[in-house]
Amino acid sequence: MKFLFAGVSGLALLATSPAYAVLTPADVTDRLEAMAALADGAIQYDLETREDGSVVLRDILILGPDDEPLLRQTQGEIVFAPILNDDFEVDVQGLEALSFDLMEDGVQISEVSITHDDYTYQMRGSAELVESVYMVSRATVDMSNDGVAGMPTFTASLIGEGITSETVSNFARSEGSMSTRIERVTTESLTSQAQAGVSTRALSVYEDTIYQAEWAGMPLAERLAGLRAEEIPPVLKQDSFAVSGTSGQTRSASEMTNRGGTTILTDASTGASAFNAELKEGQLTAQISGEGLAVTLAGTALPFPKASVSLAGLDTSLSIPVMVEKGTANGAYSLRLDQLSVSDNVWNMVDPQGQLSRDPADLVLDLAFGGQFEDGLFAQMSEIEQDISRLKFESLDVDEVSLSAIGVDLVADGAFTFDNSQGETVPQGSMNAEVSGLDGVIETLAGMGVLPPEIMMSARMMMGLMLVPGDRPDTYTSVIDVAPDGTVSANGVPLQ
């Protein structure tokens, strides 16, 4: 039994290690031993070199920081065999059936099996540059737990169909790219909690999923190892990556049943969705968008026979500095929800007479900020909390806030700066807002009995302080100013 001190991520690197481009025992051992200095976990394994030049990997055992087993291979072996043709140099075999035990405190908590039907996994290149192509008609991951004390019993499976993945890894330059397409992914699970008498069955299907990624300057194993060891920055200024993906229609359903036989049924679906993330010059930007989101709830455990929520569109993005030298760090956040609606049977619980507007709601939020770091961020992992506490916000731009719901329309924008020179943060700036439909909604709520007379009077007094009647009926405007001395005023009238 050989030993290798490495992280769990080392298993993934085995499949793309340039050592297997030539498949000599020395190359394999060198690659594994190079990983040994990088992490705090441990992998034990058996490695065999056959007469035809093949290298066989079997009996993998992953240990935790306390040398407790986390994963133990119980069946199968992975073979890296030479190919005698002009296209590829290495053929990865043995993926038809692999089995593992997941462990906790030395006790098996679940079994995992991985099977491949009609697959090809081949590589070519050199010790420094490896290209791999992976294609499989059907790959299945099954997991089960026969009932460990204190844990629910479950069975779960993940099935990928029509998978094609191409990867290029340049180990000398710590860069590479990957493109993956999956025609269909199906997940199924059944969970049972005997003591609580609750069981849950779930099924999800994802259609036509595509992922693409490029990275540079990021030796992943070294960074993950340094992150765990709190020794090196997880991100450097020269690091970069770009990841994007799209998905077609997604459908999922679940059924939860309790001891009394009552149920909650959930059905959800989405249309096309997309995401992308990019790291460049220390700035991380991520965006998620989707359309046609819908969720329906039903069942005897609910106070209504059926309820549904739908959203025509979602778009959200976040940009934050993850590696900052001395100077200003800028960031931004945006959120857009289009046509958010709930079914009438939900509305009828709070508004049975239909007096409030049930038109779909819209929300837009667009913010930007800037801050100053006295010292660089991520100078050392152990100092992260201290460094973040040194962030001094300098500006906040509210580029847009808009809300349309229950007959009220609100639009606002503004900008603030922050003075940190006196040891505490002092804001200065202004917000502008315009709202319509507020009078009508307040009158409707009062007529419904939702707003008692004293609450309605307080609301009216607050409106008189904060709002100015607009040019059109049932419209108001407001300008909130914060002066350098901390004085807050609304429409020119001090509030303090």
From TrEMBL:
Q: State the source organism's domain of life.
A: Bacteria
Q: Which UniProt keywords apply?
A: Signal
Would you indicate the residue range of the signal peptide? 1-21
What protein name does the entry list? Answer: DUF2125 domain-containing protein
